Amino acid sequence: MVVGDVTTGTEVLVIGAGPGGYVAAIRAAQNGLDTTLVDRDAYGGTCLNYGCIPSKALISATDVAHDAGNATEMGVHADPVIHTDEMQEWKEGVVDQLTGGVEKLCKANGVNLIEGEATFVDDSTARIAHGGDGQGSESIEFEHAIIATGSRPIQVPGFEFEHDPIWSSRDALDVEEPPEDLLVVGAGYIGMELSTVFAKMGVDVTVVEMLDGILPGYEDDVSRPVKKRADELGIEFNFGEVASEWEETGEGVVVTTEDEDGNESTYDAQKVLVAVGRQPVSDSLDPEAAGVEVDENGFIHTDDQARTNVDNIFAVGDVAGEPMLAHKASKEGIVAAEVIAGEPAALDQQAIPAAVFTDPEIATVGMTDEETEEAGFTPNVGEFPFRASGRALSTGESEGFVRIVAEEEAGFVLGAQIVGPEASELIAECALAIEMGATLEDVASTVHTHPTLAEAVMEAAENADDQAIHTLNR
Ligand SMILES: Cc1cc2nc3c(=O)[nH]c(=O)nc-3n(C[C@H](O)[C@H](O)[C@H](O)COP(=O)(O)OP(=O)(O)OC[C@H]3O[C@@H](n4cnc5c(N)ncnc54)[C@H](O)[C@@H]3O)c2cc1C
């Protein structure tokens, strides 16, 4: 039986329950707005179900095994065995706890939750298809809409994910039985994080990348320690090659790649992980029906208040463009909800940090030395190597450094690049410094707990002004 079309109304319709959408919905409800959140899949979106959280769970679990098995220097002798099925069960538990929490938080804040796929009818109406035979659809009239439909992995022609040996990141994160060998196409952050996970599971990992190095967009000295560790883990890299075709063999696949001169190479692998980036999900939503403009790549452009070209429709998160990161999505979600509630909110793009959870980790925020110059400032740069940090040495992880970039005149902190242990945590202090308009002196004169990795941020700030105690000032 097909259920008839009913029409309801809401002040704010949020489409997509990822970190952009659910955060926007909760804040809108907190602001007293009647809010409806619709998702066609799962609470928490890509981040909680198929992205940040499951990948970080597997990274932590394989780190535990790898570190325990490589600590003889510390007098620890162990030969850890990974039971992938149990690791998956644990990872699923983490995901379930968080997605369940999102649902509870939404309900507790009074957000109306609807399962289904939303499509715009016009700039004040959306149709929600509930999916499955006979479940019907409903129409929702809204005063404001927030589009938070996220992104999906880019498919390489010929390497579509419906073929079993070809994996998306989502397939790789659900693996019950690791392959003996894995070919990874793409050395961006997702390719590098997952290559490290599989290498630490004992899988033979080969990476092919069309550019001439890993982690495009990061400075050479920042990505170098990650490449060095990946080499030590036995990951094999082939740069300047594009995957062109694959064929099934008895035991797996043989993948052919081509370099820019047309020279071909072949690689045998049991599975192929394609991780060449992500693209926005805006097609199924039919934003054009509401008058919302979409660019040729599917992104919806917004102003610094997350507003699209249509006054009452906002877009947040991956669908609204780079950087495609969960915390950027959430911040935009909050801005959209505040603006709808009449608050003067706006997103400050200056201090959005980014982290890569490789071994060692990378984290950056704000400007590099070069970008500071391009922006018309004279940079004042300080660095502190983790090999001079008592805490880093005492954890056995002393690769990398903290670099802090300020402008010379008044000393305002403009950026930071960190590669090393807990870089993803340490970057928060630098982001706060930029956000608050702190100077190098503010960071340097803040008393930091000893012995901690955070002291490296303080020492880098001191180094910029030739005041570092535990490294030579140059
Ligand atoms: C393997 C991996 C690791 C990652 N690691 C990190 C990390 O460490 N840190 C980080 O910051 N980011 C990370 N990311 C990126 C992060 O997941 C995204 O930036 C984030 O999820 C974007 O949030 P969003 O709300 O914009 O969209 P999403 O999380 O993609 O959510 C969009 C939601 O919209 C729903 N939807 C789409 N269309 C419709 C429709 N028409 N009707 C109803 N519902 C719809 C979808 O079902 C989905 O639930 C990772 C991504 C991957 C794949």
TrEMBL record:
The keyword DNA damage does not apply. It catalyses: N(6)-[(R)-dihydrolipoyl]-L-lysyl-[protein] + NAD(+) = N(6)-[(R)-lipoyl]-L-lysyl-[protein] + NADH + H(+). Its EC number is 1.8.1.4. GO terms for molecular function: dihydrolipoyl dehydrogenase (NADH) activity. Binds 1 FAD per subunit. The keyword NAD applies. InterPro entries: Class-I_Pyr_Nuc-Dis_Oxidored (IPR050151), FAD/NAD-bd_sf (IPR036188), FAD/NAD-binding_dom (IPR023753), FAD/NAD-linked_Rdtase_dimer_sf (IPR016156), Lipoamide_DH (IPR006258), Pyr_nuc-diS_OxRdtase (IPR001100), Pyr_nucl-diS_OxRdtase_dimer (IPR004099), Pyr_OxRdtase_I_AS (IPR012999). It comes from the Archaea. Its cofactor is FAD. Pfam families: Pyr_redox_2 (PF07992), Pyr_redox_dim (PF02852). Coiled coil: none annotated. Residues 11-333 form the FAD/NAD(P)-binding domain. Residues 352-461 form the Pyridine nucleotide-disulphide oxidoreductase dimerisation domain. Keywords: Disulfide bond, FAD, Flavoprotein, NAD, Oxidoreductase, Redox-active center. Belongs to the class-I pyridine nucleotide-disulfide oxidoreductase family. PANTHER family: DIHYDROLIPOYL DEHYDROGENASE, DISULFIDE OXIDOREDUCTASE. The active site is a redox-active disulfide bond. This is Dihydrolipoyl dehydrogenase. The gene is lpdA.
